[in-house]
Fold each of these.
Amino acid sequence: MVLDSKAVAAMLLGAAERLEENADRLSEIDSRFGDGDHGITMCKIARLIKEQIPQWGERSVRTFLDDLGMAVMEVKGGSAGPLYGALIGGLGVKLAEDENTPDAVRRMFAGALEELEDLTTAKVGDKTMMDALVPAVEAAQQADGDAAAVLAAAAEAAEAGAKASEGFVAKFGRARSYKEQTIGTPDAGAVSTALFIRGMALGFTKQ
Amino acid sequence: MKMKKFINNPENLTSEALDGLAAANRDIVYRGEDNMIVNRALERADRVTIVTQGGSGHEPALSGFVGEGMVDISVVGDVFAAPGPQACVNAIKLADKGKGVLYIVLNHAGDMLTGNLTMKQCKKLGLHVVKVVTQEDVSNAPRENADDRRGLVGCIPAYKIAGAAAAEGRSLEDVAAVTQRFADNMATLAVAVRGATHPVTGAALADLGEEDMEIGMGQHGEGGGGRQPMKSADETAEIMVNALVKDIGIQPGEKVMLIINGSGATTLMEQLIIYRRCEEILKEQNIEIVANYVGELLTVQEQAGFQMFMARMDDELLRLWNAPCHTPYLTKI
């Protein structure tokens, strides 16, 4: 299987579905130390993805991801819009205009991480999206096999990372002022990132 | 929870408030696309222009200070939420009169994200923009760690300094430098005695009980670590004013600006009582207040409490503070 627009569309739709299915859970997690609207915001992002994909047209994967990322940044509801916009746009930045190799998946993740690192100093252990994204990117780089195997390895690492965020003290956002009280609750952004990446993997294999 | 607020559909709060602001101040501002409030005189401006961004819910901040001598465009997000970067890029493009744009951002996670993304995009487009971040909350990080300090009411006098410097026809680098110098020498401490209600969700933003106050409370009810039994006006003023003097390192013989900014539900009577005591304390230390404001500039809905702001002043900063401005909520002639 190659990474053409059809494969990337399937990944994004998979991510959108996974987020919509888990929206209530995301809001519930977010309500403990945040505004309680993370599920609502992620649903808005999912809806936007589903609206934009049928309008893909002739755009390259990279251009489409860049356009989609810019649109997602405008989604209202806290930092999730800009952060997921950067992540989605970043999925394309390391791709050539007409990418066609399985190795492209590894570079998609690396690009997403690079874009987010440009924006934030958050590291693994700070109870943010990075808790899921960084291990996913590392796992993707190390995974052997085809694109599906790389995606599966990334998804698994992201889920483990989101789980591990339960043990961390929040260093960013509104939750930060709750300090040690945040131990025991996962980071809503890490959970949604793991859902996003698992959704990409599921979408890719389902196509 | 049922809220006792005069609102309609919570989803339209920001939009309706911006419509109201524009309608009530038709001669000064208009409402642009992307939730922008725009200075009517921007069209004929031939100078550096000033753009800022931030969530709604803090009225009169931030959009109430759009007008000649302060902000040219304010880009508004949702309640307590930053706008997206595309709207800010659009605002900067609209504001740019060929002399460059000063972009003022308050240090809050969401605003900083949008600020960074906006700057990245502006660079790509070749726009001449300098960003100044206001980060002056002394409660949540030491001065060496300014990146962790929240931006509180200090953005408002910073707009005034920047707007006045721009009106003098100075270059963008100059306007940015004087604004940054002011920002580097300011500090704010907030105290809350009763939390507000989030106007969209109805959630309580802080619970302080009947007996307590909290020094260091953030702008959205984030804890600040200074919870203590309620004190008198004079005792509270003393703790806070001394903390600010110490933080900025103001020496006897120096001049300062002092602002008492009500958070929404503390009476002007209380704010004036606090101010009076601050002036006495500073006088005892031979520190002169050469500029001041007492009243509401940046609120947190109906939170009770206030923010106390201090900045080191010199002749240039004082001249800029006293220069004319004409905005919905601050006018100087």
Amino acid sequence: MRTAFFLLLAALLPCQALAANQVALDNSVFVERVTTDSTGKQRILLEEPKVVVPGDRLVFVLNYRNAGAQPADKFVITNPLPAAVSFADAGDTRPLVSIDGGRGWGHLEQLTIAQPDGTRRAAQPADVTHLRWAFQKPVPVGGSGKLMFRGVVK
Amino acid sequence: MTSKLNTVGIIGLAAITSLAATPALAAGTTAGTTITNTATVDYQVGGVAQGQQSASNNFTVDRKINLLVEEVGTVTTNVVPGQTNAVTTFQLTNSSNETLDFALVASQIVGGTAAHGATDTFNANNIRIYRDNTVTGTVGSWDVGDTLLTGFVDELVVDTAIRLFVVADIPAALANNAVAGVTLRATAREGALAGTQGAAITETAGANTAGKDTVFADIAGVTGDAARDGSHSDNDDYTVQTATLAVAKSSRVISDPFNNTTNPKLIPGAVVEYCIAVANTGGAAATSVVINDAVPGQLTFVPGSILLGGTYTGTVPSGTCDFNGTAGGSYTAPNVSGTIASIAAGAASTLVFRATVN
């Protein structure tokens, strides 16, 4: 709950100063608000999470950077969802997800959940407990990037 | 930038469509909860696993004040003049993310349109608010086991709906279809102190504070109750349904000593049959309708000739009596009397008896 500032989504800047580790990771969260202007056009505003109430949509942004002197291989970012946040989507970043606390992983559309009557249903975003991005190629020296996902405050 | 995933996905307007699919959340995460998100990175350099890196952020869930007052059912409460403890039923739901007290005010509409479209024409007396006792008595309906409230509901937990009864006494001598509108308004108050009504709640104005802020999220209620004011309200009404009786008397000659039943004439010794018809044009059944008729001195009552509860064809008094019914009633000279147990709204009933001309 810090000082307020508003950002347009498009104005999100690449990660700024990351810690001086071999690999640096920065994690930030915004509240997504949709406003409709007088012409009926919708605008998405990302705000600092100052006033947050149940039902608000959150955008989590993870910035990573390889600050070391060698490429980082087998690069895996894991993000367990906070208990009070329900997963919504991850844009087109296609993370692996877990719906069982991190034991099994897969893309959401591949996962199913056993129901009390023995049948299985397709997993829904709200079933997701963990997100994971496993990079297939090394992150080169100085390489950086950004991942995002959305959730809803339960 | 050789990583396959090193560019962020475009989360633009295309994703707006998913906003509509936001699940319906009720009260949700408790106010004051801190949500912490932690991400970790595992990686290798030159084939050697390196120390895990992690990054976190956190924020506090603020307090969302939301409540709903709703009339239970969609019809008016029918009452009769002079009725005590006439009940209208409401439901109060705490959709906030915190346990709260709720101040309650039951008020009367004066004039104007009541909840179900009719014009308010009178005020009820002795208005009280009860909370349904969900353990004993008749759950969901007002009974003596329900709790009389002194202006507030204490410590209503998150996502809980309770049933409230607005109970009033109806004045006597009211016309059929008279209407009294009532409004129940609930206003959120601070919780956490059982047995005492908490302080008023104000929305956090201006800049955000580090702790738990307060946001009003209620919708508008009845006229004068705006959205986002920490209170909500609804209307209900009482409609008087009373019986309105009309009486008509008719007669026919049954027989005379000379013509017998063929074209009988009203000569001494003739038998005359009387019909007293009572019609109820009101909105409620009339019960224990007592009919009395004095037999004129020129006639002699025929014992055992009283018939009760017969039918009437057409509208009293322009229709015709069917001169039927079930034996009953009594005769105490000179009065014939009988009691009809009930005449429904819109129905008619008769008392029939015979007498001879002296």
